[in-house]
């Protein structure tokens, strides 16, 4: 007589196991199959295509009623098993008990529900089975859904609902999507694809609570920062936990999952288990490939044949149309690793291979995943790749051709991308002009006016000439930013504007960077360009800043720092001086009066910085930004207040300018001077902007220098009122912020674009006003005292060592 | 090896570093990606620039004083510069950062 086999759970793993078992020996067991869901085995993976409407439920059923009947499997569907008695070898279902000779537990896993306030409201669901899928399908157009969780499941849920016209917000706690499978670059491309589908993605977003309407139904999700995302349905897809309750109560060994050996046998020899509910060699499972291997092994074990389960590398794909991604192996953690990066902005392709020694250990790809399986094979088999290292990234089809194309970024631009910002000329117009016969830069300038004004787009125009004319045009070599790209600073700035690139990842990808995240040369520049162009969208990245700007103090050659509070226009008070004196004493700092009319405190230890800032803040002082590429000082003379020659209130104007401009980031440092008369005691005529007061008003000079180069300012304009002097100065600084190459002082930038162009631009009252407005908008974000922010205890912590392992030794 | 828990991964800013004081001197712990850390001597062999204050890019760090670049895998200076910084075993266990106590001169990690 056949032995009695009971299987708990009719899921992906047990379904495959039954196929193997019955195929091999249909008569070995008398099988009863319990399933909590009121149906048999269907392909759970394909719920997403059902959700999006690409498949129907009928199409994804793997075993229908006839299948079970033909094979004599007794089905108890819609009946949950509530207890297992391993002594008596009896299983108890909701409708009665049944004895077994062998038992298989395949209960899968339970979706994890974050216990947020409101998690038990109506309309809050996980994404696991057909019921959940149907709830999402029922929404349709005009409704709104929020998905918590930007992993595989959450994104498939979001894309599926969006495909049915539902408005979807995805809330993800980490910095980029699918962070377990993707790196930031691929996460950026994925986010872009989803955004194009109309899905709003919120990264680094913390959920606070789920809000209810009057009927106990979900109304909205509230985030930590107070934002409310209204919704009719809230899907939580934040992870799974092996479903182990039955096994645990039956007294089986359970850690994170039900522990099984290589033969898929639990701690009880007559109880076997497989699928997401098990733990094997410390690992638990969330993808189907290893479960199929387990199914094979378990079937053999039941038949008394020898087989062992071996874990292999798994690869991930996302089943969302238009989002082609692939990730396999290990792309984080560990030493001795090397990256190979390839990007093709034109096709939205990103590939990164991770090598350890001469083996491939990980691969992340977006956009073109055709070679995924090949790379996955190299990883699984630990193939030596030394020989093909140079060309590895091009995949198996590589035949020694096509190297990365330096013009790819420009070739990828759409025809309506603006190339010349001064004259509003798009790529398409330039191409048309070239096709109509303009064969060089001069001709393009003459016919389209592109690059005819400030000239910073020259490099791009030349690349369009090259791309359009092919070998007939030789592109003059421009100095590229650094080894990570072939583009020049000017090219990068223009492309950030015209392509509306608003994150570092966008720049790396769309402009074809050859490294993972730039280097110490390009990153600070790109960080500045992004924050200058998109103050509201881009968040300044301290890790892309040179140490002084990150620590808001100047590092000295012995590793200590200098601290310099602002003295507005060089004016100070007894209180401020006393506070400075006290701070100097308390932190054993050396005091130096600087050329910028303020007092420097030298020799402060890093860990003391937050405390000294706190003390100076208390006395009403803020950072003097003596360490930034930003506004440094406004040097003034005493002016008409005190001086018998003074013509205007130069001190007052200086203070007004400093109060307006402080805190702003600029391509390089900016120093101002205001002198009260042409005797020029404030040495205004060698500053970046220097104003000299005269009886009739104010002479504004720009582009002076008094460093490695010494140069007198050139006259920008004469204006009669203080208010106009401020307006012109602010507009000039903003123009410089928007156009100059990183690390060009104003005098260098003006020499490149020409003072005439600067004058012409600023002479237009509307343009001047617009520049001032953009400056003020940026200041609404950046005019904050960095010291006050960093003196707070939670931030100050970062200035101390992470750990001190010397203490114990000293004891 | 004797692994010592020195902190949470999020205590180090992404593409940043923090210091750990050890018997062999200050060791910088670099975080090069979401879940990727390296440990190396904090002192640049050139003029002792504090490497934990440098810009972290890829798996490299640039010294904040004179822009020497070091590969954090090997500790070797890159390009024309010649020199090497000591590297130490460090690993992640979930969110926790573990540094090898022996390598940084601790006799026993009680
Ligand atoms: C929407 C979605 C998309 C996915 N996409 C992919 C993908 O693209 N690639 C991939 O590799 N993986 C994917 N997965 C994961 C994959 O589906 C799972 O790894 C796989 O289904 C797990 O199989 P299992 O047999 O262990 O569990 P399940 O398939 O979950 O089966 C367990 C069954 O046991 C039943 N059960 C539980 N407790 C009891 C009880 N006490 N009594 C009776 N019955 C019980 C449950 O009702 C369930 O039917 C996806 C999952 C989902 C939800
Ligand atoms: S001290 Fe590091 S480069 Fe000079």
TrEMBL record, chain A:
[4Fe-4S] cluster binds at residues 637, 643, 677, 681. Its cofactor is siroheme; [4Fe-4S] cluster; FAD; [2Fe-2S] cluster. SUPFAM superfamilies: FAD/NAD(P)-binding domain, Nitrite and sulphite reductase 4Fe-4S domain-like, Nitrite/Sulfite reductase N-terminal domain-like. Residues 629-765 form the Nitrite/sulphite reductase 4Fe-4S domain. Pfam families: Fer2_BFD (PF04324), NIR_SIR (PF01077), NIR_SIR_ferr (PF03460), Pyr_redox_2 (PF07992), Rubredoxin_C (PF18267). The keyword Oxidoreductase applies. Keywords: 2Fe-2S, 4Fe-4S, FAD, Flavoprotein, Heme, Iron, Iron-sulfur, Metal-binding, Nitrate assimilation, Oxidoreductase. Residues 315-381 form the NADH-rubredoxin oxidoreductase C-terminal domain. Residues 4-278 form the FAD/NAD(P)-binding domain. Siroheme binds at residue 681. Binds 1 siroheme per subunit. Binds 1 [4Fe-4S] cluster per subunit. Residues 556-619 form the Nitrite/Sulfite reductase ferredoxin-like domain. GO terms for molecular function: 2 iron, 2 sulfur cluster binding; 4 iron, 4 sulfur cluster binding; flavin adenine dinucleotide binding; heme binding; metal ion binding; NADP binding; nitrite reductase activity. NCBIfam families: nitri_red_nirB. This is Assimilatory nitrite reductase (NAD(P)H) large subunit. It comes from Alloyangia pacifica. The lineage of its organism: Bacteria, Pseudomonadati, Pseudomonadota, Alphaproteobacteria, Rhodobacterales.
UniProtKB/TrEMBL annotation, chain B:
The keyword Iron-sulfur applies. Transmembrane segments: none annotated. Signal peptide: none annotated. NCBIfam families: nirD_assim_sml. Coiled coil: none annotated. CDD domains: Rieske_NirD_small_Bacillus. SUPFAM superfamilies: ISP domain. InterPro entries: Rieske-like_NirD, Rieske_2Fe-2S, Rieske_2Fe-2S_sf. Keywords: 2Fe-2S, Iron, Iron-sulfur, Metal-binding, Nitrate assimilation, Oxidoreductase. PANTHER family: 3-PHENYLPROPIONATE_CINNAMIC ACID DIOXYGENASE FERREDOXIN SUBUNIT (PTHR21496:SF23), FERREDOXIN-RELATED (PTHR21496). The keyword Iron applies. This is Assimilatory nitrite reductase (NAD(P)H) small subunit. It comes from Alloyangia pacifica. Residues 3-99 form the Rieske domain. Pfam families: Rieske_2 (PF13806). One of its GO terms (biological process) is nitrate assimilation. One of its GO terms (molecular function) is metal ion binding. The lineage of its organism: Bacteria, Pseudomonadati, Pseudomonadota, Alphaproteobacteria, Rhodobacterales.
């Amino acid at each position: 007589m056949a032995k009695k086999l009971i299987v708990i759970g009719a899921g992906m793993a047990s379904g495959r196991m039954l196929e193997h078992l019955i195929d091999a020996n249909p008569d070995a067991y008398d099988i009863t199959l319990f399933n909590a869901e009121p149906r048999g085995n269907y392909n759970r993976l394909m719920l997403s295509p059902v959700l999006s409407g690409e498949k129907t439920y009928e199409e994804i059923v793997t075993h229908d009623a006839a299948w079970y009947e033909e094979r004599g499997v007794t089905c108890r569907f819609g009946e949950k098993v509530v207890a297992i008695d391993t002594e008596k070898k009896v299983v108890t279902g909701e409708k009665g008990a049944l004895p077994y000779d062998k038992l298989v537990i395949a209960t899968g896993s339970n979706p994890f529900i974050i216990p947020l306030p409101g998690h038990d409201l109506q309309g809050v669901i996980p994404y696991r089975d057909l019921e959940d899928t149907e709830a999402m399908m029922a929404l349709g157009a005009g409704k709104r859904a929020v998905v918590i969780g930007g992993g595989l499941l959450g994104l498939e849920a979001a894309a599926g609902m969006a495909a049915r016209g539902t408005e979807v917000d995805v809330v993800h706690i980490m910095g980029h999507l699918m962070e377990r499978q993707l790196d930031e670059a691929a996460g950026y491309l994925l986010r872009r694809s989803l955004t194009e589908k109309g899905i709003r993605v919120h990264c680094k977003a913390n959920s606070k609570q789920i809000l209810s309407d009057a009927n106990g139904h979900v109304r909205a999700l509230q985030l930590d920062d107070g934002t409310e995302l209204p919704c009719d349905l809230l899907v939580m897809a934040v992870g799974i936990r092996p479903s182990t309750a039955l096994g645990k109560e039956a007294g089986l060994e359970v850690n994170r999952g039900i522990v099984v050996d290589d033969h898929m046998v639990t701690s009880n020899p007559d109880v076997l288990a497989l699928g997401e509910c098990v733990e094997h060699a410390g690992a638990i499972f969330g993808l189907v490939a290893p479960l199929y291997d387990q199914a094979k092994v378990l079937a053999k074990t039941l038949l008394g044949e020898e087989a062992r389960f071996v874990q292999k590398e798994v690869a991930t794909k996302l089943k969302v149309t238009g989002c082609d991604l692939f990730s396999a192996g290990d792309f984080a953690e560990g030493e001795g690793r090397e990256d190979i990066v390839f990007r093709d902005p034109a096709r939205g392709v990103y590939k990164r291979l991770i090598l350890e020694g001469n083996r491939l250990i990980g691969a992340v790809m977006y956009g073109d995943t055709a070679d995924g399986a090949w790379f996955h094979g190299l990883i699984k088999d630990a193939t030596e790749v030394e020989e093909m290292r140079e060309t590895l990234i091009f995949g198996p089809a590589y035949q020694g051709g096509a190297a990365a194309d330096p013009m790819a970024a420009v070739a990828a631009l759409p025809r309506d991308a603006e190339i010349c910002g001064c004259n509003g000329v798009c790529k398409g117009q330039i191409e048309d002009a070239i096709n109509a016969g303009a064969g060089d830069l001069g001709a393009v300038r003459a016919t389209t006016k592109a690059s005819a004004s400030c000239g910073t787009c020259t490099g791009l125009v030349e690349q369009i000439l090259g791309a359009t004319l092919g070998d007939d045009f030789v592109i003059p070599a421009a100095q590229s930013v650094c080894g990570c790209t072939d583009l020049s600073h000017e090219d990068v700035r223009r492309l950030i504007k015209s392509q509306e690139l608003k994150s570092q990842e966008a720049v790396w990808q769309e402009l074809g960077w050859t490294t993972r995240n730039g280097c110490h040369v390009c990153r600070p520049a790109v960080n500045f360009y992004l924050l200058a162009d998109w103050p509201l969208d881009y968040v300044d990245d301290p890790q892309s800043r040179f140490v002084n700007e990150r620590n808001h103090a100047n590092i000295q050659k012995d590793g200590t720092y200098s601290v310099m509070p602002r003295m507005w226009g060089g004016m100070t008070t007894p209180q401020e001086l006393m506070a400075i004196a006290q701070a100097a004493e308390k932190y054993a700092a050396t005091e130096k009066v600087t050329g910028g009319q303020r007092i420097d405190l030298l020799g402060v230890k890093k860990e003391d910085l937050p405390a000294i800032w706190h003390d100076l803040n208390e006395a009403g002082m803020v950072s003097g930004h003596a360490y930034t590429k930003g506004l440094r000082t406004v040097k003034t003379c005493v002016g008409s207040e005190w001086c018998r020659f003074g013509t205007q209130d130069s001190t007052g104007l200086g203070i007004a300018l400093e109060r307006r401009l402080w805190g702003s980031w600029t391509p390089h440092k900016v120093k101002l001077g205001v002198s009260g008369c042409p005797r020029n005691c404030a040495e205004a005529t060698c500053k970046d902007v220097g104003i000299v007061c005269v009886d009739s008003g104010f002479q504004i000079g720009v582009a002076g220098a008094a460093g490695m180069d010494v140069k007198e300012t050139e006259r920008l304009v004469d204006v009669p009122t203080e208010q106009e002097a401020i307006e012109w100065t602010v507009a000039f600084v903003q123009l410089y912020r928007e156009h100059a190459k990183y690390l060009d002082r104003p005098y260098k930038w003006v020499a490149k674009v020409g003072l005439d162009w600067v004058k012409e631009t600023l002479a237009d009252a509307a343009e001047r006003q617009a520049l001032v407005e953009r400056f003020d908008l940026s200041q609404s974000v950046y005019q904050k005292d960095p010291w006050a922010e960093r003196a707070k205890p939670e931030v100050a912590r970062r200035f101390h060592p992470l750990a001190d392992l010397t203490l114990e030794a000293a004891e | 090896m004797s692994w010592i828990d020195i902190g949470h991964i999020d205590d180090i800013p992404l593409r940043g570093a923090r210091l750990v004081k050890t018997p062999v001197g200050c060791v910088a712990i670099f975080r090069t990606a979401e879940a990727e850390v390296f440990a190396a001597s904090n002192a640049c062999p050139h003029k002792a620039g504090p490497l934990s204050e440098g810009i972290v890019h890829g798996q490299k760090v640039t010294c904040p004083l004179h822009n020497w670049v070091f590969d954090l895998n090997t500790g070797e200076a890159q390009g024309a510069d010649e020199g090497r910084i000591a590297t130490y075993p460090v690993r992640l266990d979930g969110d926790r950062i573990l540094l090898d106590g022996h390598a940084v001169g601790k006799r026993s990690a009680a």
